[in-house]
Specification:
alpha/beta; Rossmann fold; 17 helices; 13 strands; binds uridine-5'-diphosphate; UDP-glycosyltransferase activity
Amino acid sequence: MTKKTHIAVIPSPGFSHLVPILEFTKRLVTNHPNFHVTCIIPSLGSPPDSSKSYLETIPPNINSIFLPPINKQDVPQGAYPGILIQLTVTLSLPSIHQALKSLNSKSPLLAIISDAFAFEALDFAKEFNSLTYLYFPCNTFVLSLVLEMPKLDEQVSGEYKDLQEPIGLLGCVPINGIDLPTPTKNRSSEAYKKYLQRAKGMYLVDGIIFNSFFELESSAIEALEQKGHGKISFFPVGPITQIGSSNNDDVVDELECLKWLKKQPQNSVLYVSFGSGGTLSQRQINEIAFGLELSGQRFIWVVRAPSDSVNAAYFENSNDVDPLKFLPNGFLERTKEKGFILASWAPQVEILKQDSVGGFLSHCGWNSILESIQVGVPIVAWPLFAEQAMNAVMLSDGLKVALSDGLKVALRLKYEDEEIVEKEKIAKVIKCLMEGEEGKEMRERMKSLKDSAANALKDDGSSIKSLSNLASQWEKFGGI
Ligand code: UDP
């Protein structure tokens, strides 16, 4: 039998989908250099600067093919990011197929790994007799839900948000219908149809690689494996983030925000950020500004220009508008001793690594949460869209649910759709996290999760073993 060692990796566009699968690929080629990998990269128009500069850092031992970008005019304007991401891949399928054919003719493809949004590309695997894997960039809680989705769709009538009882997923905290991911909010929407289609597609793959680790979600991972789910093998390989892999310390040490953070006392600064694309209304920006002021705490805040859509910045550069002009009058002057403002984008992993950062007010994107865990920083959860509310529930209602004491590592800001979170509530929750007894306890728990995360990535750690199991599966199939 000819030995196969060649793997194709297909990310999908959007910073927080592109980076995790490429970081996984880096770890794969570092730990298992006998495989060679080519990334086939779709994009929607010209990628935002953040994605562009990240793509420049792909190491030479990973080949990359940049596909012709999809024209922004060919996708619905202002659609939900999940729709845009999936549509970009769908429209790129002919060029993905072409790229796979050409790669396979040079060196037969052992496996194709695609991001969850690029699953349609896995249909081509039959033609090349390759194994198929999904890289799912979220936690086990969300993965368990998605795998349950086809059944829920059959069993539940009406909208999920109207369910009277929470949904119980094996090994996970109960979840209310209202906290399910955005595409489930309206079952007749296009976003829901695509979500369900992705969920059904998951059952066709040989394996699912996902960004969690055993010590974080032991009962959920065990339940997933015990349940079987047909022929699918599960590989928790996380945490996969840029913490530990970015080695541009010298360059970023020159940044003013980091110089400022280095001068602040330990655990004294709250980092405020809503991810790579989260946006807030003008009224909400004002309330946060006043809330921060009222809390009396030190802060570093990534401010974006306001929008009434929560994800307006996901595929855009916002450098043409100065977001600072949307802050309340006199705010910068009044808070200049205690606060540092960044316009639109922050070197997040470098910020979180500073000893002075003691809390993170976060929209609860999974990458941000893992980054926070890896440095032991507790969270104020302010979910905006996608599966962020589920992540917030997981953090605030208890990790390691099999244990009697849930590991609460976040304070959850609860608010209804459309509602504005008022400054008093913001100030109270910030003070509680930064100064209160509860905040102190959560910081301690986060420190123990930080150790677990580091252990999972040691040579004999759970995630590195899981990666080796994946490699063994390939070696067997590839005749290596
Ligand atoms: N990020 C960053 N600077 C910013 C905002 C975000 O470096 O100003 C990075 C962050 O470190 C994380 C990713 O972008 O790795 C955001 O991913 P997440 O899953 O948290 O949220 P999303 O962007 O998908 O909403």
